[in-house]
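Progress note, sequence design subtask.
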């Protein structure tokens, strides 16, 4: 849960995607041991205040401590706010792909060990 001044305003969730999920998205080339993240700031008045990048930065620090090498997330290429927020948290374009549900998407990766 993402809290702002103690109020729940959104959530983050993360998982290791299965080979089947990566295949279905045409992303089988992603590094093994990647952690995939979903994020939502659901309260309108809390959008555009830097909460998303801050929450992602905290999660990346936790994942780094746990030894995770790469974290990634996907979003529609039309979601400029999300792409901007992810860039601010240190994610960079990995590649574009066609999601069966959302159409043209962009997958972005954060390199937590500076290996790339
Ligand atoms: C994507 C998301 C998590 C980003 O979090 P955030 O806390 O709003 O991120 P930021 O505050 O850094 O804003 C990112 C960009 O959104 C845009 N933005 C600013 N105010 C905004 C507003 N009121 N509403 C929408 N977008 C806004 C700006 O371009 C901003 O970039 P800038 O600060 O360089 O100008 C959040 O927008 C969100 O949950 N959106 C709805 C769900 C979604 O799209 N999730 C991602 C699906 S993959």
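Output:
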């Amino acid at each position: 849960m993402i809290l702002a001044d103690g109020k729940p305003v959104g959530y983050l969730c993360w998982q290791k995607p299965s080979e089947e999920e990566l295949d279905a998205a045409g992303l089988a080339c992603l590094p093994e041991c990647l952690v995939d993240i979903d994020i939502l700031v659901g309260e309108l008045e809390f959008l555009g205040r830097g909460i998303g990048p801050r929450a992602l930065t905290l999660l990346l620090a936790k994942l780094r401590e746990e030894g995770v090498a790469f974290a990634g997330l996907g979003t529609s290429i039309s979601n400029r706010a999300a792409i901007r927020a992810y860039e601010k948290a240190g994610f960079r374009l990995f590649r574009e792909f066609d999601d069966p549900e959302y159409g043209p998407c962009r997958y972005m990766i954060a390199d937590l060990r500076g290996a790339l």
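The chain has a mean pLDDT of 93. Work on this subtask will continue into the next period as scheduled.
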